[in-house]
Write a structure and sequence with these properties.
Keywords (chains A, B): DNA-binding, Transcription, Transcription regulation
Radius of gyration of chain A: 21 Å
Strand content of chain A: 25-35%
Helix content of chain A: 25-40%
Number of strands of chain A: 5
CATH superfamily of the largest domain in chain A: Lrp/AsnC effector binding domain/regulation of amino acid metabolism (RAM) domain
InterPro entries (chains A, B): ArsR-like_HTH (IPR011991), AsnC-type_HTH_dom (IPR000485), Dimeric_a/b-barrel (IPR011008), Tscrpt_reg_AsnC-like (IPR019888), Tscrpt_reg_AsnC/Lrp_C (IPR019887), WH-like_DNA-bd_sf (IPR036388), WH_DNA-bd_sf (IPR036390)
Number of helices of chain A: 5
CATH class of the largest domain in chain A: Alpha Beta
Pfam family, one (chains A, B): AsnC_trans_reg
Oligomer: homodimer
Largest sheet of chain A: 4 strands, antiparallel
Structural class of chain A: alpha+beta
CATH topology of the largest domain in chain A: Alpha-Beta Plaits
GO molecular function, one term (chains A, B): sequence-specific DNA binding
Shape of chain A: elongated
Protein name (chains A, B): Lrp/AsnC ligand binding domain-containing protein
Chain lengths: 154, 154
DNA sequence: TGTGAAATCTGCCAAGA
DNA sequence: TCTTGGCAGATTTCACA
């Protein structure tokens, strides 16, 4: 039992399906739907958590209610000798940066930005991002409408 | 009370901060930290839910434990006369597609893909995505490592 | 908006088949 | 790995300040 492939049976899948849909689903409610006791569900959950398969739970906020309407992806080109970690550190300080990836291909770094509107995006790029030392150029793709948003299926 | 800007006071922010960090934080625990009664927290939560500010809660699965290690962003070029909705419908049937956006700029559609490895990604692109009628060409950016992953701050 | 109290439901542990 | 039993604590509602 040193290294292990995790094998999920139907019950595990049902538990995960319920909790990935709504993290506050009562365990006893799942137990009723699945047909085993709450304590058993609880034991399985502890197993799943130990296996790192579940990495947490979150309330999902709706950005539009806060007035955040412009989602954009920005590819970043760096100078050759730039220390990427410094760039990432600078990007972390910008709250609008939701994701940041080191990438292959055209760009060195690729980020996802959430802004109030296009003007806010432009302002961010011009005054906060393109001014970071080491960043040469950026290329933006603006999302007009998001059609799919989900996790891996189980 | 027809249209309303939502004003969050310090208590609302503490509630949201606790629940966006861990959706299963007990309400009474938040109540203790904030210094008001559990019933009051409950009332505020109902208000926040009604305002659509909270759009749900989710358990976060760890894709790496399932063997999913390659995250990629793919820009898609469509033929001019293509009905985008048909394309999106086809993309929805591919479980590896986690996000899908209509976009401005170079691409017509932009997606986020989660695959087992690079071979799986290539296979997906060649056999499932580029074969969708209307798709002319795709351009991929592969994430080597994700450094930031978060929601909007409150 | 807040509180406190009451009724009900959950979370979680232990012991055992 | 399941079940039962049980208690502490959580959720939820309500009348009232």
């Amino acid at each position: 039992m040193k290294s292990k492939t995790i094998i999920l049976d139907g019950i595990d899948k049902k538990i995960l399906k319920a909790l990935t849909a709504d993290a506050r689903t009562p365990i006893l409610e799942i137990a009723r739907n699945v047909g085993i006791s709450g304590a058993a569900i609880h034991q399985r959950l502890r197993k799943l958590e130990k296996s790192k398969l579940i990495s947490g739970s979150k309330f999902i906020l709706n950005p539009k209610v806060f007035g955040y309407n412009t989602l954009a992806f920005v590819g970043i080109y760096l100078e050759h000798a730039t220390n990427s970690e410094t760039i990432v550190k600078a990007l972390k300080r910008i709250p609008e940066v939701l994701e940041c990836h080191y990438t292959t291909g055209h760009y060195n770094i690729f980020i996802k930005l959430l802004c109030i509107d296009n003007a806010h995006l432009m302002h961010l790029l011009n005054t906060k991002i393109q001014t970071i030392p080491g960043i040469i150029r950026t290329e933006s793709v603006i999302s007009l409408d998001q059609q799919i948003d989900r996790q891996i299926q189980i």
